[in-house]
Amino acid sequence: MTTAGEGALATLRRMVDPHLLVHHAKVARFYSYAHVEPRRRLHAGPGLRMSPTASLRNGERITLGRDVHVGERCYLWAGDSSGRIVLGDQVLLAPEVFITASNYGVIHGVPVMQQPKRESDVVIGSDVWLGARVVVLPGVTVGDGAVVGAGSVVSRSLPAQCIAVGSPARVVGWRDGFVPSDGATGVPTALP
């Protein structure tokens, strides 16, 4: 049986373990790379609420409207050279949403890490709710007021006011009180 003093000494040894200190330094460096630095470069309207666990890439190509909520462990990865991410006002990203404006190519015979990247803007309209673990791929536009169910993969643009689920996400309904007009998709065609 150990005494309280021995237990405290063991705890102190673990806290000053050089391996632990090196690990903390690596975590701090990664946090700066994946959150602090890109957050300084993004453009955001007033009222932004962003979890400190959100991961950002190329913040200078990320624009967030007013009153946007970015949940725990969300990923907003803009392209390295041109692909932008634009979110409208009052967008709600549930935990672990992944939005990317960049993807690797699929040329036969070329290793994945050597593939040229394909970048294309992602535009999320205002008043959009993306459920937990939704994935949004490059080139997608999600219309104003859309709701995308948890775990969905958005590989094609979605119309305004729709409710979409699945992989790939497909429209299964419309928000209460909304009646789509014939031929109207509600999908914006240009970046703001």
Shape: globular
Any idea what the radius of gyration is?
A: 21 Å
- Our estimate of the beta-strand percent is 25-35%
**Main sheet record:** 7 strands, mixed
CATH class of the domain at 42-174: Mainly Beta
Helix content: 10-25%
Instruction: Assign the CATH superfamily of the domain at 42-174.
Output: Hexapeptide repeat proteins
Keywords:
192 residues; alpha/beta; UDP N-Acetylglucosamine Acyltransferase, domain 1; 7-stranded mixed β-sheet; 5-stranded parallel β-sheet; 2 helices; 19 strands; 19% helix; globular
Q: Gist?
A:
With 192 residues, the chain is an alpha/beta fold. It is 19% helix and 27% strand.
Q: Could you characterize the architecture of this molecule?
A:
This protein has 192 residues and is an alpha/beta fold. The chain has a domain at 42-174: 3 Solenoid (UDP N-Acetylglucosamine Acyltransferase, domain 1), CATH 2.160.10. 19% of the residues lie in helices and 27% in strands. The chain contains two helices and 19 strands. The strands form four sheets. Strands 2-5-8-13-16-18-19 form a seven-stranded mixed β-sheet, with no helix packed on it. The model is unreliable at 186-192 (pLDDT under 50).
